[in-house]
Amino acid sequence: MPVLGVVAAFAGVRFWPYGIILIWFGLCCIVLGFAYLRPGLNLFCKTDTGRIPLYMSVIAFPYLAFTYVVWRVNVGLVSESALIVIDDNLIVGRRLFPHELPRQVTHVVDLTTEFSEPSGVVERVAYQHLPIMDGHVPLRDRLLQTLEELPEDAVVYIHCAQGHGRTGLVAMALLFLRGEIASVSEGISLLQSKRPGIRLNSAQTGFIETVMGRG
């Protein structure tokens, strides 16, 4: 990400003043890259009600706008279902539009830092924000606290942007805490049998192994 930022910034300088948006985007990417050095960082200051403040939306506009466009294109072009039911108390998937949220959901755990949660979702359920940068991991204690606060009878919807890496990591942690899986391989097999697109990178795999007491 920092490399992309540097390239974009230099390209912007070359085409000054028309390249100012590239410089802006490049600086956002550079800051974002360094943010990955700190797990669980809520870089865009997203609130407990799921909103990215206006001032942060302005400061990071090029990156946030780019991310939103990519997300919308994926939603429109990818044939994958928006969500999938894992069991009676757990549903996982991508960021949803309000009308897509299943009626039975009582709690939403939002893992994105880069999107505001639609107000139509937040107003209908008990909402929790667990900030995780795309492709990264959360703070271990924050993860466990968030999941342990969920009532036993809660019907939980866990989502990131596309419902793959971050979602798979946190869903696996919840299944482990509930005693429904005993290993990472078992968790991956279960989740991928329901949603094949779920993939954990090496950092996420190492993290969940640590959570399960195997790292």
Automatic annotation (TrEMBL):
Residues 141-206 form the Tyrosine specific protein phosphatases domain. One of its GO terms (molecular function) is phosphatase activity. This is Tyrosine specific protein phosphatases domain-containing protein. It holds the Pfam family PTP-SAK. InterPro entries: Prot-tyrosine_phosphatase-like, PTP-SAK, Tyr_Pase_AS, Tyr_Pase_dom. The chain crosses the membrane at residues 15-37, 52-71. Keywords: Hydrolase, Membrane, Transmembrane, Transmembrane helix. It comes from the Bacteria.
